[in-house]
Amino acid sequence: MTDWMDNPWFLGIWVALALPSLALVAWDLHRNNAHLISLMKVVWLLTVAYSGPIGLLIYWRTGRKEIPDDSIWRRSFRSVAHCYSGCGLGEIVGVTIAVGIFAMGNTGTALLTFTLAYMTGFGLTLGPLM
Fold first, then answer.
1. Which of 23, 30, 68, 78 yields a CA-CA distance of 20 to 30 A from 47?
2. 114 Cβ partners below 8 Å, 6+ apart?
3. In the record, which residues are listed under signal peptide (predicted)?
4. 56 near 21, Cβ under 8 Å?
């Protein structure tokens, strides 16, 4: 399955789609959703940075305040976005520290990335409640 995912063409196309998606969500957050709390802006930027156009679609359908019907599925997508963005950030930072700086093996890398992913995911989920 990963043969096509690590193809340079696939990665190039994905970046070509992800960057405009990220720019669009940043523009929309600034222009139309400036009233969102700062933490939610970070959550949506990270979600779209990780997921490209898929994340943008999820933001557009569930994260904008302009949608009149705040259904349970919209709220659930917003809740998942907190954990998704935080866990992803923890994983990226953890791998960068463990492998890139300390050249740790698999066990150390797994422990550090799990710990950081859990802590940042929990923090971004708990943040709006405080």
1. 68
2. 94
3. none
4. yes
